[in-house]
Amino acid sequence: MKKSLFIVSSLLMISVLVVACSSSQQTEPGVQDVKYDSNAWVYASNKSLASYPVKGFGYKDSNVPTMEWNKWATAAAPIVNKIVGELPDGYVLQVTGHTDSRGPETAMGNKPGNLKISSDRARNVHNLLKAKGVTSPKVVSKGVGSSEPMSGIATDDPQQRRVTFQVVPK
After folding, report:
1. Which of 89, 109, 129, 159 could form a disulfide with 134 if both were Cys (CB 3.0 to 4.6 A apart)?
2. Mean of the per-residue pLDDT values for the chain?
3. CA-CA distance, 163 to 144, in Å (whole number)?
4. How many whole angstroms separate alpha carbon 154 and alpha carbon 152?
């Protein structure tokens, strides 16, 4: 009887420990949070992609900085190409353009607005990816203006001007 009670209580404690450990998540400081699906491949891909934004855009400029692109393409294009080749059904690689918070989100007078600028940035990077051989219809582009700022950095900081990559449901 004591042996059965010991086994049952041990199993109960192990179950509680497993549940407690699996429900706590830790994020590394300085690593941008990424939205992820419960699918381990999607999560791992998004974590990898979060390390490779295209940066260095000028104020209200959608032209991809050549120097930044060349550095990015050398390091990240093979990774992006591999991820695109392994995308599960129902998922796409989203190329997302971002701006800082200066200026209006939508067109106002002679200002194009942050949404247009961010859409143009994403489209330009998408076109450069095509030139590098990433031509899949599973790659889409989207501009989000200043609505998805990096945490811990002022919203009007030039670092907010970037293009990011993420595996998302269609």
Report:
1. 129
2. 84
3. 10
4. 7
Give residue 103's identity as a one-letter amino acid code.
G
Cα gap 153→9, rounded to integer Å = 48
pTM above 0.85, yes or no: no
Instruction: Render pLDDT for 8-60 as a digit per residue (tens, 0 to 9).
Output: 444 444 443 444 444 444 443 444 555 544 589 999 999 999 999 999 999 99
Domain ranges of the chain: 36-169
Half-sphere exposure of 6 (CA within 13 A, CB side): 3
Say if residues 45 and 167 touch (Cβ distance below 8 Å).
Answer: yes
**Which structure tokens are listed for 50?**
């979060």
What whole-number distance in Å separates Cα of residue 50 and Cα of residue 29? 13
| Both tokens assigned to 145 | 């203006």
